[in-house]
Write a structure and sequence with these properties.
Elements (H helix, E strand, L loop, with lengths): L7 H15 L3 H8 L15 H5 L4 H25 L2 H16 L12 H11 L1 H18 L2 H18 L6 H14 L1 H9 L9
Helix pairs in contact: 1-4, 1-5, 2-4, 4-5, 4-6, 5-6, 6-7, 7-8, 8-9
Length: about 200
């Protein structure tokens, strides 16, 4: 855990603003902008990039991925620059919670994988890069996005410790636990062998 040295009011304001930024449902915004309909009525109903990809529109899926990752990364970057490293971790947590439980959608959001990776890349770039590589390698082998996310999330605390960022491992464990909780249905389908493959509409 970081040493909390910033003013409590600054940290609280960071949490609120990071949550609001994380709450922006870019998947829904992008699919509507591309004329693809309501993402919550497509595929799994999830608002993330993987479900956008099920529409068959790769540019829309890429835009969603970058924006969902970017909102977490930007929240961390601003908090670190304006408040301090302790606030950066708070921003990472609350932007992630914003994506999972967005106020704009009745607190029914996505699974947070892209936002998690975006925050990790800015918090600790080498560890974030290692987590992204873990996702990519697992995806290349399994062709299952959810499994790739679970493996990347599970190994992220390990990468943080190995690469010299042990003070962020507790945060990574907490976020990974939330990712696993949000993937309960996916885990059941993985075990049953019925989880959809990447690119399947």
């Amino acid at each position: 855990m970081p040493d909390f040295t910033s003013a409590p009011l600054s940290v609280a304001l960071t949490a609120v603003l990071a949550y609001l930024l994380g709450s922006i449902p870019f998947g829904i915004v992008i699919t509507r902008a591309f004329g693809l309909g309501d993402l919550r009525k497509i595929g799994s109903g999830n608002i993330g990039a993987t479900n956008v990809l099920r529409t068959g529109n790769k540019p829309a899926a890429l835009a969603t991925l970058l924006l969902d990752a970017g909102k977490g990364g930007i929240a961390v970057l601003i908090a670190r620059a304006m408040v301090g490293p302790d606030a950066a971790q708070i921003a990472a947590l609350f932007s992630f919670l914003g994506h999972l439980f967005p106020v704009w959608l009745g607190f029914k959001g996505g699974k947070g994988v892209a936002t998690f990776l975006g925050t990790l890349l800015v918090l600790a770039f080498p560890a974030g890069l290692a987590a992204c590589a873990t996702w990519a390698v697992t995806a290349a082998i399994s062709r299952i996005s959810s499994l790739s996310a679970l493996v990347a999330a599970a190994l992220s605390p390990v990468w943080l410790v190995v690469l010299g960022y042990p003070q962020m491992a507790v945060l990574a464990i907490a976020l990974a636990a939330l990712i696993f909780a949000r993937h309960n249905a996916n885990i059941a389908r993985i075990r049953a062998g019925t989880e959809p493959r990447i690119g399947k509409k």
